[in-house]
């Protein structure tokens, strides 16, 4: 059981470039989430999904898009990266509304 | 509007003593509370949780207390060990929602 994995671990982008972050889970969880963590801000929810084919906006969705084409995968896209999107991104999954299990994170630097 | 607040950004405790981390919330619809622990360069890991129908939950050295009237919860670690040095996040979920709201975290340092 790998749990929740994230790809890539680290990435540097130039302003305006696009990229996709991949999250995969092997626990057959229905719910999946994308968060960003910034200093002094805790974890803020970007988008989430309550099942295959569904997505919903979280607290800070602007500038991001997501897709959940397969139950085990949740993709986070940045269409035109901005320096304000420099952050550490965490994916999580859960089988209920309660305990979420997190991936190791993706560190993104936008220059 | 910060619905879950951890007012102490950092806390230092001597090894062997009790560590007490605090968390306050404002949303009366929250009915489930969790604590996560995070080491540098790793994702948060679930530590312990409590439902609003209880006021205490224990798991080994970790105990979470919930005071619903004060909208306050605390995490007690006894005895504190060097491996407990990490950032601790408090989180809460509201009735019939799929989302967690996190606090800003408290960095705990255990002094040997």
Supply the key terms.
heterodimer, A: 111 residues, mainly beta, seven-stranded mixed β-sheet, four-stranded antiparallel β-sheet, 11 strands, B: 112 residues, five-stranded antiparallel β-sheet, 0% helix, globular
What does this structure look like?
The complex is a heterodimer of chains A (111) and B (112). Chain A contains no helices and eleven strands. The N and C termini of chain A lie far apart (36 Å). In chain A, strand 5 and strand 6 form a beta hairpin. Chain A has 111 residues and is mainly beta. In chain A, strands 2, 4, 5, 6, 9, 10 and 11 form a seven-stranded mixed β-sheet that branches. By secondary structure, chain B is an all-beta fold. Helices cover 0% and strands 56% of the residues of chain B. Chain B has strands at 4-5, 10-14, 19-25, 30-38, 45-51, 56-59, 62-67, 72-77, 86-94, 101-102, 106-111. In chain B, the strands form two sheets. In chain B, strands 2, 4, 5, 9, 10 and 11 form a six-stranded mixed β-sheet that branches. Chain B has a five-stranded antiparallel β-sheet with strand order 1-3-8-7-6, with no helix packed on it. In chain B, strand 4 and strand 5 (45-51) form a beta hairpin. Chain B is globular, with a radius of gyration of 13 Å. The model of chain B has no long low-confidence stretch (mean pLDDT 95). At the A-B interface, strand 4, strand 5, strand 9 and strand 10 of A face strand 4, strand 5 and strand 9 of B.
């Amino acid at each position: 059981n790998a749990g929740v994995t994230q790809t890539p671990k680290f990435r540097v982008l130039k302003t305006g470039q696009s990229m996709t972050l991949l999250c995969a889970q092997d626990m057959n969880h229905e719910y999946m989430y994308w968060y960003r963590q910034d200093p002094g801000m805790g974890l803020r929810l970007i988008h989430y999904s309550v099942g295959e084919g569904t997505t919903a906006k979280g607290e800070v969705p602007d500038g991001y898009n997501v897709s959940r084409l397969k139950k085990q995968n949740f993709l986070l896209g940045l269409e035109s990266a901005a320096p304000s999107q420099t952050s550490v991104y965490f994916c999580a999954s859960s089988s209920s509304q309660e305990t979420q299990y997190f991936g190791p994170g993706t560190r993104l630097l936008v220059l | 509007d910060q619905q879950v607040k951890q007012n102490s950004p950092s806390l230092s405790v001597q090894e062997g003593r009790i560590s007490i981390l605090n968390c306050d919330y404002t949303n009366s619809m929250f009915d489930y509370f969790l604590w996560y622990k995070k080491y540098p360069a790793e994702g948060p890991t679930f530590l312990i949780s409590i439902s609003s129908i209880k006021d205490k939950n224990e798991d080994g050295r970790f105990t979470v207390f919930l005071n619903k009237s004060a909208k306050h919860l605390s995490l007690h670690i006894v005895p504190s060990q060097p491996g407990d040095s990490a950032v601790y996040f408090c989180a809460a979920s509201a009735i019939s929602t799929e989302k967690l709201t996190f606090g800003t975290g408290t960095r705990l340092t255990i002094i040997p």
